[in-house]
Amino acid sequence: MLIYRIQSGKTVLEEGQSFSPSAEARAFRIPVGRVLTSEGLTLRISLPAVSEDDLAFSVYMGGLVLMGHRREPRRFQRSFAKQLALPYGKFYRRIRFSREFDISRLSGTFHHGVLDLHIPFLAQAVEVPIAVPLPRLVDEEACALTS
Fold this sequence. Notes:
This protein has helices at 21-26, 74-77, 140-146; strands at 2-7, 10-15, 33-36, 40-46, 55-60, 63-70, 89-96, 107-111, 114-120. The protein has 147 residues and is mainly β. The chain has a single domain (2-146), classed as Sandwich (Immunoglobulin-like), CATH 2.60.40. A hairpin with a 3-residue loop joins β3 and β4. It is rod-shaped and about 105 Å long. The model is unreliable at 8-19 (pLDDT under 50).
C-alpha cells in the first residue's frame, strides 16, 4: 500500500503498511472541513499537537485514509486526574469523494497543525471553436432575376 507522509511541508510518497480494521476501531475520528471551489475540493484538517512524523495518508479509488498518532505529553501520563480538551492516541479518518476529482494531482501542506489537501477536478473537455468552410449560399433573389 502506498502511504503519503508530510515532510517539511511537502507530500512524500513511500511504501507503508495499511491500518488494520481492529486498529481503526480503537482510533478516534478527527473532524474534516470541506470547501468546494471551481477548481476542486480542499480538505482542511485541524491536527493540534500532531507532528509531521506522526501523520500519514493513503489514497485509494474514490477517497483517502488519514491516519496518525497524537502523543500524550509525559507529564500528563503521570497525573492522577485528567480532564483533557484533546483526545490522545491513534486517529483514523476515511474520506470519500466522487469520481469527478483527479486524485493523481492531489497536493497538500501541513503548517502549524493544519493539514490542507487540495484535489482538483478531472480535466474537462474545453470548447474550442473550429472554422468549418461551408459551401457558398446562392442568393434566391439573384437566382429569380436570371430565370
